[in-house]
Amino acid sequence: RPPPVTPLRLILPASPPVTSLRVTGLKHYLECPLRFYLSQALYLQSFDPEAREINAADFGTLVHRVLENFHKNGPHNETDEAKIALYFSDELDREAARHYGRHPAPVVRVQIESMRVRLRQLAHLQAAERRDGWRILESEYAVKKEDGLAIGPLTLTGTMDRVEVHEEKGLRILDYKTFAQARTPEETHFGPVRENHHLTEAVVLRPFKNGALREKSWTDLQLPLYRRLAAQIWPSHASKGLAAGYILLPGDPDDTQISLLSLDEATQSHAETCATAIAGRVARGVFWPPAPAA
Predict the structure, then answer these.
(1) CA–CA distance from 259 to each of 50, 173, 175, 185 (Å)?
(2) What is the pLDDT of residues 21-67, one digit of tens each?
């Protein structure tokens, strides 16, 4: 006869009360409150001791660094695609050498060349958008705890990759995404409704292909909350128009594009209601139940 099964009792270590919430952290709570607690409150991270290549996070960070330098020190008002591409290429070499040395491993060199191809395609897009009247207002703009911008009982923090302004069209908040395959904001922010969802406020109506509405679930709140923050920080620009989306820099350079999230006022309000519910739970220390890994 098999031995009796003893239920596992998980005792979580205490952590200081959470007083602030990163915009990107909301996605983790939507995925699983317990994993949110482990990663966002206890700061536990996975580690692969066998890794020999640039992981996805560091890949994106290196591209972000090149683009941040482009705004701060580079020809960000340039409309000549070739000059922009040359800057991107030279800056990538400088940043890659600083992080990985002059003679990185072969697999790392391949990844660096993949970045170069993506940045070359972005140079074409950057030149076209600048000719259209969009200019970069801020790059890697940090919203800090002391700024006092709140959602529910918690202070919101976060970093906006790129804030653009247009004389007639207003503000555009863009996040760089170096996905292997392009994924639109619609695909990353909404997913199927899960049975026994731990957060009923996450269920929202979205239009289907035929225009009919159907229930979906928020899987990320990044772009709606960036819109909320931007409206508070740059109200005069936002009054002319306010959009948020991705600059997609995927593995296939032909898919490089700006992809905006379609948000009407009702959906924006629903996103903020969902975020407020999460903030309330986090403030009360509710990090249960766990959810299966995707």
Answers:
(1) 35, 11, 10, 7
(2) 999 999 999 999 999 998 888 877 776 665 678 899 999 999 999 99
Under DSSP, the state recorded for 153 is: T
Instruction: Determine the Cα–Cα distance for residues 171 and 227; give it in Å rounded to an integer.
Output: 9
Provide the H-helix boundaries in 132-255.
185-189, 222-233, 235-238
Q: Which long-range contacts (CB under 8 A, 24 or more apart) does 46-52 make?
A: 52/105, 52/107
What is the 8-class DSSP label of residue 4?
A: P
CA distance 262 to 19: 31
Query: Can you tell me the distance from the alpha carbon of 206 to that of 216, in angstroms, rounded to the nearest whole number?
Result: 6
CB 255, CB 185: distance < 8 Å: no
Q: What is the pLDDT of residue 49?
A: 60
Residues 112-155: tens digit of each pLDDT? 999 999 999 999 999 999 999 999 999 999 999 999 999 999 99
| 3-state secondary structure at position 109 | helix
Q: Is the CA virtual torsion 143, 242, 259, 279 positive or negative?
A: positive
Alpha helices in 172-262 (DSSP H): 185-189, 222-233, 235-238
